[in-house]
Amino acid sequence: MLRLSRTGVYLRAQGLARSLPEKPLSTLLPATERLTARMACGGGDEQRFRDPASNPRVVQLREIMKSDAKDGWNKSWEEGVTPWDLGQTTPVVLQLVQSGSLPKGRILVPGCGSGYDVVAMASAERFVVGLEIASSAIKKAKERCSSLPNANQFTFVEADFFTWQPKEKFDLIFDYTFFCAIDPSLRSAWAERIRELLKPDGELITLIYLISDQKEGPPYNNTVDDYEKVLNPVGFSCVAIEDNEIAVERRKGSEKIGRWKQHVTKSFL
Ligand SMILES: C[S@@+](CC[C@H](N)C(=O)[O-])C[C@H]1O[C@@H](n2cnc3c(N)ncnc32)[C@H](O)[C@@H]1O
């Protein structure tokens, strides 16, 4: 059962929860950086539209996806119809990096888009793979990022998350607006892929954009329960759920950071 800790973090598994930061993530940044993060929260071109369906660019995206299910994402990137794109690192990703609570090792960002979060997480301790189905997104990300000082600590791969076969598994998968972008009929397959791609002790972090009143997508309706419904059957439990206090303006109050781990199966032999 979920319970609320004094830090505002919902803890599920006592043992795992102990390894999480004692303070809410938002307090881990120095005051000046918290302010900068808040100011940066206005990013993205649909900040005036809290309801995605009222944003003309989301309507345009949905039209593109309906007209070309196979290549729709690539078309949206080619035509610059990317209303989700913040044009900067997601503030809470910076916070996770700076708080020291992000696992080290091999990191996967499925549906990485422009790649800002990929670059922000990449360091000598973390090799980050940004995965994208859209060739034009990959091209843009590579053009923007390939000469950055940490360029040998990340890579962009053009492939379909549902069929891609990497040589090595990952210590962390970070999902932000990928789960809500894919058709809900693919959610069980998404969870199965998370299980296949993560090392047994790896962690899944979902930055969950909660939406509930959309008649269509993307983005499709999603709740924390929707993640649990598909992750629990493949062996994952939620170890912490925290409000994202520095979500971008239009998503404020609508985002949660979920941390998930595989259940430990005890052998009685
Ligand atoms: C809503 S966008 C989110 C992008 C990024 N995570 C962000 O927050 O800015 C979803 C992204 O997933 C990509 N995508 C959709 N289906 C995919 C698939 N099957 N495999 C890999 N990427 C996919 C799209 O091209 C798109 O860039």
TrEMBL record:
The protein's name: Thiol methyltransferase 2
InterPro entries from the UniProt entry: TPMT (IPR008854)
Gene Ontology BP terms: methylation
Pfam hit, one: TPMT
Extent of the signal sequence: none
Lineage: superkingdom: Eukaryota
Keywords, alphabetical: Methyltransferase, Phosphoprotein, S-adenosyl-L-methionine, Transferase
GO molecular function: S-adenosylmethionine-dependent methyltransferase activity
